[in-house]
Structures are given as C-alpha cells and as structure tokens.
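To whoever is covering the structure queue this week,

Two jobs came back overnight. Logging them here so there's a record in the thread.

Job A:
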Amino acid sequence: MEYVGYALSAACLLLGLAAAGRLLWKRWGRPRSVRAEVVDKHTAAYDGFAPEKGTVSGKTQYTVTFRTETGRLYTLEASPGFFEAVSVGERGVLTRQGDRLLDFEREDGAGD
C-alpha cells in the first residue's frame, strides 16, 4: 500500500514539473521569427503610492499588437522608444521569444 502512495506522489511531482516546464518554455523558449504587420498600439498608465516615502509615482505600459500572415495576433510589451518608432500598418519580420518582443525589422517601404 505504501508503494501506491509513493507512486501517486511521484506522479503528482512529475505533472507539476511538466506544467512548470511548459510555463518556462512559453516565456523563455527559443526565439521565433515571422512576417507580421503592426495592427495596434496601446498604452496603459498605472499609479502607485509609496507610503513610506509619501510619494506618488506612475508607470506606463506600452504594448504593440502584431498580426502574422496566418492571422494570429500577438500583443507584446514594448519599450517606450520602440513604441514611438513603430507605426500601425508597418510590415516586417517580428522576432519574439515566448511573450517577449525581441526585434521587429521593417520591410523597405512598409507603411507607405
């Protein structure tokens, strides 16, 4: 009977490790490049209060949405500089790693 308990514990541990591995692979898997178009840009502002300092600070999150040639949408967080430099309608090669934006190389004449 003890064997069944150990086997069940081992199975639960393996399932937990597999789930954690999937999450890590989604976030940090190998980089992937695909042809895509910028279809949307969005900002979201967040306010924060630091009671120990008595200050209010804010953060702005910049996101860019890309549509691949197959129609799949990726909404990825971008740096402020990238957000300002890219325009809706531009086409190029999107390189991402999981849910992280690594690069977007514009095609010549894209967005014209």
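Job B:
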Amino acid sequence: MSAYFTSLLAAADLLDVSSILGALIYSLIGVVLFGVAFFVIVKIAPFSIRKEIEDDQNTSLGIIIGAVIIGISMIIAAAIQG
C-alpha cells in the first residue's frame, strides 16, 4: 500500500500548475498560428477552396490541403518543443 501512495505523490509532483499552464498556453499559440496559416492559404489560392473540395469533389486538392495541414502542424510542434 505504501508503494501505491508513493507513486501517486510522484505523479502529483509531475503535474504541477506551471507545467499545465505552459502546455495550455503553447497549445493556444499553436492553434492560433495554425488558424492564421490556414487563413493565408485560403486567401492566396486563386479559387475557392471550399467550392473545389465540397462541390466539385476535388480529391487531389483535399490531399494537398491535408498535407499542408500536417506540415504546418509539424513546424508549430517543432517550434514549441525547441
């Protein structure tokens, strides 16, 4: 029983408020940067991305947008991680 409480205390030490707050702040920054990047992509495109994907069922554009989303996410994660 003593080992159980010791492991709980060790887990509580890892979950301090500053770590949780830092994770939340970095997550918020990442989501905002991702939204800005996606907004720029939509504005730069010479056509309506929504129309091409939804109405015209342009699968290749959907794949390219998905790849861009993954790439931006990887860049943001690497920048946050340092």
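Note for Job B: The mean pLDDT is 81.

Please reply-all if you pick these up so we don't duplicate work.
Q.
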